[in-house]
Design brief:
The complex is a heterodimer of chains A (133) and B (213). By secondary structure, chain A is α+β, with helices and mostly antiparallel strands. Chain A is 33% helix and 30% strand. The longest helix of chain B has 31 residues. Classes of the chains: A alpha+beta (133), B mainly alpha (213).
Chain lengths: 133, 213
């Protein structure tokens, strides 16, 4: 097959991959108002009433929210430093965070986590789950 | 083509790419628009293809990615500086891989031009996205976890659709450059390329210093 036929076929293939992936992502998006931590669902208000507040300084200014380390303790995670924590977003984006980093982080009232000393890729928006691993 | 002339071209096109990523990309991001897709599908494809057409030197676009990515680190505006910088550098390298086998003579029909635009934009965007997801956690410390990337793959493959469509329209338009004679006289070439590059760097780094120091 010549290039003049192969190249359009490849282009069609990547478009089909993109379209089918978009349909899959849309169909599997998580839509819920609660955050699941260690298997239990909590509203943001519940989490804010459980944990202590912390203000951290980031390169985007000061951010205030509930301290993640305190939150993990309050929701009953045993041996906090023995685990890593997978923080998952509504759009399936997720990052694995070690306890050392969790101790510096916060969860804001708009469902975003911030860590002062990490790249922004770890500042996950629209958090729906924190899995204790 | 002598090496100094090529180096000045890399510096100019890389600086323009980095400058547009910092200024236009940040503005689009602040406006809630898909900045990454627009920047790759329109700006990156235009600058990479234009430089390829004008200089016809494989390897140049890799250098452009390094220059643009370095400038992006100094972005004074919000955003993930490291991830964006790594993605841009990766995009330059991926463009080189895709275009290694593409002869400019292959780009005769509109269908082929558009198809190569789609392939280039999709693969550059998705490849840059994947590489930054791997490299950012490694370089910034927390470490890379394959499961996080696997879960994100459908999103990456889906997000590549918009830049692909843009690339399909932008590349045929960019190829019109071939028909325009924009050769610059030798005595003006270096002052123009160095002057424009210096402006891009001074503007971005100056703003970065104002914000951070």
């Amino acid at each position: 097959m010549g290039k003049e036929k192969l190249i359009p076929l490849l282009a069609m293939s990547v478009l089909l991959i993109g379209i089918s992936s978009a349909a899959y992502v849309h169909a599997t998006q998580v839509n819920k108002d609660t955050i699941s931590i260690n298997g239990y669902d909590y509203t943001i208000n519940q989490l804010f009433s459980m944990g202590t507040m912390r203000t951290i300084k980031t390169d985007e200014g000061k951010k205030t929210g509930v301290a993640l380390d305190d939150l993990m303790s309050k929701v009953g995670v045993s041996c906090l430093s023995c685990h890593s924590y997978i923080i998952k977003a509504k759009d399936r984006y997720q990052q694995t965070i070690s306890w050392d980093i969790m101790q510096t982080g916060i969860l804001t009232d708009y469902g975003r986590v911030y860590f002062p000393d990490t790249a922004h890729t770890f500042w996950i928006r629209d958090v729906v789950e924190i899995q204790v691993k | 083509m002598d090496k100094m002339r090529l180096f000045a071209g890399i510096l100019l096109f890389g600086s323009l790419w980095g400058f547009s990523e910092c200024i236009i990309g940040s503005t689009l991001n602040e406006a809630g628009l898909p900045a990454g897709a627009i920047m790759t599908g329109i700006f990156a494809v235009t600058l990479l293809v234009t430089s390829r057409l004008l200089y016809r030197k494989p390897g140049m676009q890799l250098g452009m990615g390094l220059v643009a990515g370095t400038l992006r680190i100094f972005n004074p505006f919000v955003g993930c500086h490291l991830c964006s910088a790594l993605a841009i550098m990766a995009e330059g390298a991926i463009f080189e891989l895709i275009w290694y086998k593409i002869d400019l003579e292959d780009l005769k029909t509109l269908t082929t031009q558009s198809s190569i635009g789609i392939l280039t934009a999709y693969l550059v965007y998705a490849g840059g996205y994947i590489l930054t997801q791997i490299l950012t956690p490694v370089i910034s410390g927390p470490g890379f976890y394959l499961e996080n990337l696997i879960v994100l793959m459908p999103n990456i493959l889906a997000d590549g659709l918009l830049p692909a469509l843009m690339g399909g329209a932008v590349l045929p338009a960019t190829l019109l450059v071939k028909k325009i004679d924009i050769s610059i006289k030798d005595r003006l070439y270096y002052p123009t390329t160095i002057g424009l590059s210096a402006f891009c760097w001074l503007f971005i780094v100056g703003n970065w210093m104002l914000v951070n120091l």
